């Protein structure tokens, strides 16, 4: 009888599968809102995937296009610190999206320090070691940029808005400056940013999102102490999505949520879940990438029962945030 009971108990834990075990955010001082979003994403992981849409800030209205095409809006809106002159607009859009009931994610096409900002400069090469040498142009520019972006993210923290923070994306590619000199230098950059933003700047509203490209590689993984969510992106039609998913899972384990960070065509939710690629979210890229997706496919994805759209996102903080402690109340007040 005891053996039978033990077997039934073991079976019940095995059948729980995704989304039952829970990780805590790495930042022990994480805001109530960040904790709530992370709990919600873990609750969805393995059950459904959230629809995400990257938006541009140069004239295209991707959200309107999605709404007109499907009658719905994505649960996650993607934003980018790509243009210093427009970064305050990205903060405004993050505020609007959170207040609308959605979740903002912010990436950063970081122009190579000492060279300049913008997409083209993010592909320029610098000597990463010089970032860590006092007085070099690379060092000065790096820390100036870090402080500027920290100040922007702090605005969202003061407004009690959490962010899926995705810096240094496509890290194992060789096109952005942070990936051009191998995994060890990349990991030093990631850990430096994490420690500075969390421990010195007190940015407690960030959920740290690691983004591989095409073929996730454990050599580039900063470690469980520095990553809340991981996943790949790809624009290659021949790239196996289940292989990307399985490679990521082999690196981060069974509990950490895995996202499909960028794609030219949204995955088929039913086929993905059937194969075992249970992305916690996908994010369609902006402008022409979105407009080239067949409208019938976009509508199929947004209407799929496995996909969460904006209208289906609950009041995350109310449902998953728990009660505020006195110290959280005091911290939120100031």
TrEMBL record:
Gene Ontology MF: a single term: hydrolase activity
Q: What is this protein called?
A: Glycosyl hydrolase
User: Is the keyword Ribosomal protein assigned to this protein?
Assistant: no
Question: Where, by residue number, is the active site?
Answer: 170, 262
Per the UniProt record, the source organism is: Mucilaginibacter calamicampi
Domain of life from the UniProt record: Bacteria
Q: Where is the GH26 domain?
A: 32-311
Query: Cross-referenced PANTHER family, in alphabetical order?
Result: GH26 DOMAIN-CONTAINING PROTEIN-RELATED, MANNAN ENDO-1,4-BETA-MANNOSIDASE E-RELATED
Task: Work out whether the entry's keyword set contains Hydrolase.
Answer: yes
């Amino acid at each position: 009888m005891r053996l039978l009971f033990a077997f039934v108990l073991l079976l019940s834990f095995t059948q729980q599968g995704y989304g039952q075990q829970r990780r805590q955010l790495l930042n022990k001082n994480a805001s109530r809102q960040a904790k709530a979003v992370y709990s919600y994403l873990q609750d969805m992981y393995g059950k459904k995937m959230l629809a995400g849409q990257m938006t541009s800030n140069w004239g295209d209205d991707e959200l309107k296009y999605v709404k007109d095409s499907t009658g719905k809006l994505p649960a996650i809106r993607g934003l980018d610190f790509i243009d210093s002159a427009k970064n305050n607009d990205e903060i405004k859009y993050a505020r609007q999206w959170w207040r609308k009931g959605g979740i903002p994610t912010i990436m950063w096409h970081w122009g190579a320090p000492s060279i300049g900002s913008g997409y083209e400069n993010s592909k320029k090469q610098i000597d990463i070691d010089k970032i860590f040498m006092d007085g070099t142009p690379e060092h000065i520019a790096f820390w100036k940029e870090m402080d500027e972006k920290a100040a922007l993210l702090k605005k969202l923290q003061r407004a009690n808005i959490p962010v899926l923070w995705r810096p240094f994306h496509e890290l194992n590619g060789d096109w952005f400056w942070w990936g051009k000199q191998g995994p060890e230098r990349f990991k030093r950059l990631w850990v430096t940013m994490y420690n500075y933003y969390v421990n010195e700047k007190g940015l407690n509203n960030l959920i740290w999102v690691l983004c591989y490209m095409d073929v996730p590689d454990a050599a580039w993984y900063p470690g469980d102490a520095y990553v809340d969510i991981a996943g790949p992106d790809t624009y290659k039609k021949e790239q196996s999505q289940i292989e990307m998913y399985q490679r990521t899972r082999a690196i981060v384990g069974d509990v950490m949520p895995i996202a499909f960070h960028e794609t030219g065509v949204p995955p088929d939710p039913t086929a993905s879940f059937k194969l075992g690629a249970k992305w916690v979210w996908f994010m369609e890229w902006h402008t022409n990438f979105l407009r080239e997706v067949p409208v019938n496919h976009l509508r199929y994805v947004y209407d799929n029962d496995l996909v969460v759209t904006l209208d289906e996102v609950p009041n995350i903080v109310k449902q998953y945030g728990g009660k505020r402690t006195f110290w959280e109340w005091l911290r939120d007040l100031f």
